[in-house]
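Quick entry between incubations.
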Amino acid sequence: MALLRKINTKAKAEINTGFGTNTSAYGGRLMNKNGRTNIEKHGVGFLERISWYHTLLDLPLWKFLSILVFFFTFLNLIFALIYLAVGIQHLSGLDAVTTSDKFIEAYFFSAQTFTTVGYGRINPVGFVTSAISSLEALVGLLSFAIATGLFYGRFSKPEAFLRYSGNAIIAPYKDGAAFMFRVSPYKNTSLTDAEAKVTIGLFIEEDGVTRSEFFQAGLEYSTVNALTLSWTIVHPINEESPFYSFSAEDFAKAKGEIIVFVKAFDDMFSNEVVSRSSYVFGEIIVGAKFEPMYFRSPDHNKTILDLDKLNSYTTIDITSILPVSKNNVATA
Amino acid sequence: MALLRKINTKAKAEINTGFGTNTSAYGGRLMNKNGRTNIEKHGVGFLERISWYHTLLDLPLWKFLSILVFFFTFLNLIFALIYLAVGIQHLSGLDAVTTSDKFIEAYFFSAQTFTTVGYGRINPVGFVTSAISSLEALVGLLSFAIATGLFYGRFSKPEAFLRYSGNAIIAPYKDGAAFMFRVSPYKNTSLTDAEAKVTIGLFIEEDGVTRSEFFQAGLEYSTVNALTLSWTIVHPINEESPFYSFSAEDFAKAKGEIIVFVKAFDDMFSNEVVSRSSYVFGEIIVGAKFEPMYFRSPDHNKTILDLDKLNSYTTIDITSILPVSKNNVATA
Amino acid sequence: MALLRKINTKAKAEINTGFGTNTSAYGGRLMNKNGRTNIEKHGVGFLERISWYHTLLDLPLWKFLSILVFFFTFLNLIFALIYLAVGIQHLSGLDAVTTSDKFIEAYFFSAQTFTTVGYGRINPVGFVTSAISSLEALVGLLSFAIATGLFYGRFSKPEAFLRYSGNAIIAPYKDGAAFMFRVSPYKNTSLTDAEAKVTIGLFIEEDGVTRSEFFQAGLEYSTVNALTLSWTIVHPINEESPFYSFSAEDFAKAKGEIIVFVKAFDDMFSNEVVSRSSYVFGEIIVGAKFEPMYFRSPDHNKTILDLDKLNSYTTIDITSILPVSKNNVATA
Amino acid sequence: MALLRKINTKAKAEINTGFGTNTSAYGGRLMNKNGRTNIEKHGVGFLERISWYHTLLDLPLWKFLSILVFFFTFLNLIFALIYLAVGIQHLSGLDAVTTSDKFIEAYFFSAQTFTTVGYGRINPVGFVTSAISSLEALVGLLSFAIATGLFYGRFSKPEAFLRYSGNAIIAPYKDGAAFMFRVSPYKNTSLTDAEAKVTIGLFIEEDGVTRSEFFQAGLEYSTVNALTLSWTIVHPINEESPFYSFSAEDFAKAKGEIIVFVKAFDDMFSNEVVSRSSYVFGEIIVGAKFEPMYFRSPDHNKTILDLDKLNSYTTIDITSILPVSKNNVATA
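Done. Structure below.
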């Protein structure tokens, strides 16, 4: 029996994922492990397609700092050339004799003006050079407004700091089985009112055409008051689950993606923080139990949360729990 | 039959648009294409009617920078005059001989103080000039707090960066037709929990009196989990739509405006962003289908979203779907 | 018949106003016209009772600036004294001869360091004075972080910029009457998703004891999509209103307060803004109609909102609409 | 009868506290009095477990300032060593003769550059030293972006400024009893739309195994429009309360924690603020009434809120109200 036939018809379709249903248009993963969507934009001008704010907030630190140093150097070079052009003699206090030394002194005078250090050994004399240097100080203050604003913005950007278990598992749950994964805050944050939303995407080939179907994954509970320890998010494989008739083989052969979205309130940021991730079927361990990851401290006064155990599980045989696959995908 | 009679009486009136119902008071469009309301405020003092924060955040960049340069120059001129008034001899280190040169040096001393560059060749001596220059440094720091705050505020202002299809279309939908338009994020943003609200405003002339009626446009679905690709917002023309009895001619002759409001959560801004737009009836193509705007990448690893195709549609004949207009507005 | 008896028993009590019900504890108005609650806190230490952030954000501008200038002067005086104490000879470049001149130069050296202007004519020599001045520069940068942060924070603080009609009115409404007032944004803001909440507080003397009763005022509609023109907030005096049996005399004699709370989303602030106000019974005009306050512009292209007309009303006789007061409060 | 048997089976379990149910893993209090959870994280690298933003925003002021001064000194030392390494002769204007004096001058030149004071007596000459000092000015501006951002961030961090009564009480309420505590804003804030959530956690030993059970505490009312005076949060001990069958002895012997979570909107911060606290059973006074804490001012124009009375109560005998404990825990 084809996998398509085995998708539980009572499962609640998720119609508004924002990913569309025309799977033939998709390539690869919808969402990467780090929560970014796997989409490239074309058309419109390149510059129009870029939000500098988003780009600069999102760059790795070394790239961000390189860009800062590049712009700092570039703008100083421009101003140094301007000072040379209007006449280096209008900079009093120069020690330089050769042209290259003069350029170097003009460059560093520019840097001292741009950063408003203004030692003053070199200083502008006359209207034109004074005017340019006062303009440069203004440009410097405005440039550093953006540079330092972004630098602090990167540092203080609300982030969820959540870590997901590398694998999702199919574990025994009540009378049947459940799809589970764990998430845990790994930094000294204090998250409240956390909410999870899980969407199951299945890519189905039938008669040579690939189609995607999205389903809401019903959760054991989808909110927690405080997200301080680990949270095992549980999708019970019951009559409303698209996995209701799935055998172990079906899980192994299915293609698609389970998309996870968690949001919570961080009271240090005083803001909502969001986190996304996804599991492909290859990352699901059929038949496993998560090991406990928090313990009482030796002095019995605290709870210890061991983050290294986030993905710790022991495999168990659950074939007796899952439906038997008489006609699996391969033989369909 | 007059258009008024053709408005579906089962359509759900939108009573709280904030635009009132006394159409005779209105002029032109309620909302411009860019989402701004077409309203002018009179009364109260002019200065009281202005929020400088809103004004300066909203100005085109060149106007904003011009205002900055103007204020910078203006304040330096004022302080230069003060330094001259209390006695230029209290500025040590001047090279100037003529009065105009002295004014120029006082001006640039002021600029060097205001920006806190403070080269120091020119520096204050004595109580009065020192006091004024220390006050100026304070004024400078406070002025730049506003200037740089606004400059960074403009740069980092949460914006939705959404683009709407230039036209709305009436397209086949299920057994009948639907009013549709498309919206797509055009920058490298990541929007979640997007929600759309569409209000249909019809301006009706009856017995020489114009009246406006607003209706909630029921949507196929009004939220998407992630707004990453394009989103076709669909108002099915069913029994609850004010357009239920509209023929193609009625759409052509109707006057009014379809007002669109979209909000979503941007996790880089960690804030809600909003976007508004509107379509007048002249912008509706009766009988068209949007062309797909996203594709699988050649290497099958990504999805490509082609923003240039946002307004791409092919016209089709849908007269057989729409009600026939026996008595259209013109013959009424 | 005492007023108490005339309060409609079907009116929905508002139990969670946060103002309590023990009226004997209250004095005067609960909420001032500007929306501030009329409460004074005692106990706890004075400094603990103060949030400097709230206080400094809320002060009139001239007081805020005075405090800034005071602290700037005060800290410079302290540092000037320290420079004198460790030996004025460690400041190179002084012109001063007399002690008072030396103090003045030390003071302005301090100011130049604190603002990081650092002209450099006067500059520190030797370990102790250099160390103090480098510490002062650090203190200056941190102090200006607070000062300029607050200055910009005051400038950019999300505010609703709403104006309320000076009077509330009792006007004809459908078959009966309604309590109405108007609110209008008076600056160039763009408010969406506005929501109003109105609470009616009645202070009742019975057997020499005063008691307060709070009621939710049902509104014709309590939200508007866009708050761009004026919004007339209407509480219909129907069977669920506490005013259902009120005659004109009862309104005149009643004591209490109608508390108004409006919130909306301002997309330039990207934040929710709130506004509060209140009406005492003396501010209610029994029998009036608001005059229109927006018009079509002469060129028919815009809507003009005339803010001067916010409180314009024409009085009308509505005694025939209100219940006759056989036994009013005075004769009870 | 064991306490376990006395927990009302009709009480609504709180399944999503985020604290798990495996009590054997816990140690001590779940939440400290100040609202912090009593959890320690292990595993992952130490640096990865730290959010510097959260840590630095949360440190006591003196520790935060010490860290600032330490980093300021440390970075200046590093740069001083670099200036020495590349040749102290490239710093013009030095008075120093001895090596240690040279190091001191290099250090203070660095400090003057780092803070952008730049007096200029000491100033860089030549390419290498000039380049290092211009880099240092850049590093200084970026470092102060973080330092001043955090300093202002600490000052302006949205906080609830709520104080809880030190004790919770069991007081007479309607026909029975209720669990109550008081909360009051103690600073000049203006909180609206406050909401409280109370969770009762009971730790039960049965057959030598400890188990935790969490219950939602139903509240008399869980929201207030304005949190301006004191708010007595009341959990009626009715048929839905886990305390329904508790005698005074049971309260004394019970182990567990009542966890309180309050959130509200502060319009000066324009943000939601949250506050948490908890009561252990030892902090519950069985049989008490809170004394009033607000009064009319002498001039009858204001309400006075006396914060010192937040925990003022008078004990009363309520044994006749509570169920008699035939078989209390000790005798079970």
